Amino acid sequence: MNKLNIKKDTLVLVIIFIVINTVVLVLNNTGVGVPQINYTVVLIANLLLFVLTFVSYLVHIKSVNNNNPYAFVRGIMSMMIVKLLVLAGAVILYLYFFKESKNVPAIIAGLGLYILYSVMDVRAAFKLSRNKKNG
């Protein structure tokens, strides 16, 4: 497996994390963004999903090197479920502690970030698989 591709995929993940944080902070500080969104919740969701996607990427690297062909599919599916359960748990905790001041638009933005990070995760995983077959 090519170490340059691993570094490139990791760099893309970090760049997207930084871009999303920058956009959220600019929207929050300039007042241009949607005033109903609690941007702190979106930033925390972005951080949580970034960490989970990075861990997921490490699991994919390990599973693509496994001789069992089903390990790769298990790695992808298990990490998607883990990400979904952790994000659902975070939403439940948020709703429990902030009953009156809950912010549904921020939760929906976090779920949108989940979709973005999941697409990136699966794309990177299949790229890893394709690179292993070719090299």
Automatic annotation (TrEMBL):
The chain crosses the membrane at residues 12-31, 37-59, 71-98, 104-126. The keyword Transmembrane applies. Keywords: Membrane, Transmembrane, Transmembrane helix. The keyword Transmembrane helix applies. This is Uncharacterized protein. It comes from Haoranjiania flava. The lineage of its organism: Bacteria, Pseudomonadati, Bacteroidota, Chitinophagia, Chitinophagales.
